[in-house]
Each structure stands twice: as C-alpha cells, then as structure tokens.
Amino acid sequence: MTLGVILLGAIVLLTFLGLTQRVFDRMHLTDSRALLFVGLLIAGSFITIRLTGGTRPISVNLGGIVPIILGFYILKKADSRKEWTRALVATVVTTGALYGLSKLMSGFGHGRDMIDPLYLYGIVAGLVAYFVAARSRRAAFVAATIGTLLLQVVNMIELIVTDSPGTVNLGGGGVFDATIIAGVLAVLLDELIGETRERLGGGHHEEK
After folding, report:
1. What pLDDT does 111 receive?
2. CA nearest neighbour of 3 among 155, 183, 153
C-alpha cells in the first residue's frame, strides 16, 4: 500500500473511533459522507484511464479526481463568496509555490534525498495552503489538494508547448500520495494550531 492509502485507512479508523467528528463538522461533512469520499479515493487510486498515446501519453487516475469533487462540494456547503475567493487565491499561490519547487528540484539528483521529492511537494503544499488560506480549513484543504493536482496540469501544458516527450498520469502514482499528504497536513495544521490558540486565548477558535 502507498502512503496515501495508509493515511486514508488511518482516517477511516479514527472516524470509527469518533475522533474526527469535530473536524468533519467544521468542514461541513458528515461522517458517512466523509467515509464515502475516502472510499472513492481508495478505490479510484487503483483505476487509471489512458487518454492518449504517442510520445506524450496522458492518463487519469480516478482517485486523483475525487479531491477536486470533494473540494467543490465543501465550498458549496460553505456557501460563502469570501470562502470561494480565499480558496481560489490560496490554490493559485500553492500551485505557484509547487511549480517553483519543481524547477528548484529539477537541478538536483534524487539519489541521496532525505525525503521522497513527491512527499516534499505534499508537505510544502500543505504548509503554503494553510498559511495563505488564513485559518480556513476548508480553503486550506482545497488549495492543498487541487494545487498539487494543478501542478501536473501545468507540467503537461509545458510539455505540449515545448513539444517535449513525457508521460503524464494526472492524479496517479506518487502524486496521489502527495495530494493526500497535502490535504491532511493543511487540515491538521489548522486543527492543532487553532486548538492551541483557543487554549491560550481562553476562547473558541472560530473558522473564518
């Protein structure tokens, strides 16, 4: 099993133990709907559809599409123009940060990396999305996951524009793991830091 699937399995376990209810409530998700999306993520991660062949074969992993659907669902439930704007800005910034990181990483070999580069993308996406989303776990989740997937789209466009050979598996492979890491980290940061602020301030951590 990949790290992404393991993380999703951990979320399922925590949900059954009743330890995720507050997080899901703040994201406007019931436990049953959250488990449905997790199930779709896990099942979809094993299904890849090939779209094109040739020197630039393009395929789509169905598990990689689910975070996009989940993101729009969460924002629709929030029903706030401010929330949509915050998520859009955070997504653009996150994608830009990841693109810059990809250019930086391209100059280095990966033989002696202390951490898998794809996991690094997930960590960076989660951090950037959290800070840019301004304490909104919904916007942070959307920016972290969709921003990670959009990096692939940008890379695909770059291959086409420069007429370079390459393989693109949208949402698949290590990118699936990076997307899950990014989303979980963004929400976890908001939950932990928000809880700390609440305890230190003696008040209730409000979701913006």
Report:
1. 44
2. 183
pLDDT band, residue 200 (cuts 50/70/90)? confident
Query: How far is it, in rounded angstroms, from Cα 139 to Cα 90?
Result: 7
- pLDDT tens digits, 29-71: 999 999 999 999 999 999 999 998 878 899 999 998 999 999 9
Residue 86 lies in a domain: yes
pLDDT of residue 19: 87
Sole residue written with tokens 């994201």 = 27
Residue 208 lies in a domain: no
Please give the structure tokens belonging to residue 82: 């401010």
Looking at the domain assignment, is residue 192 inside a domain? Answer: yes
Residue with tokens 């994608």: 95
pLDDT tens, 8-31?
A: 999 999 999 988 888 898 888 999
Domain count, the chain: 1
Burial annotation 148-158 (CB, 10 A radius, 16+ → b, else e): bbbbbeebeee
Closest of 96, 95, 91, 77 to residue 133, by C-alpha: 91
Which residue range(s) make up the domain with 27? 3-201
Burial state string for 119-147 with b = 16 or more CB within 10 A and e = fewer than 16: bbbbebbbbbbbebbebbbbbbbbbbbbb
pTM: 0.87
- The DSSP letter of residue 165 is -
Query: Tokens 């960590």 label which residue?
Result: 123
Q: Does residue 206 form part of some domain?
A: no
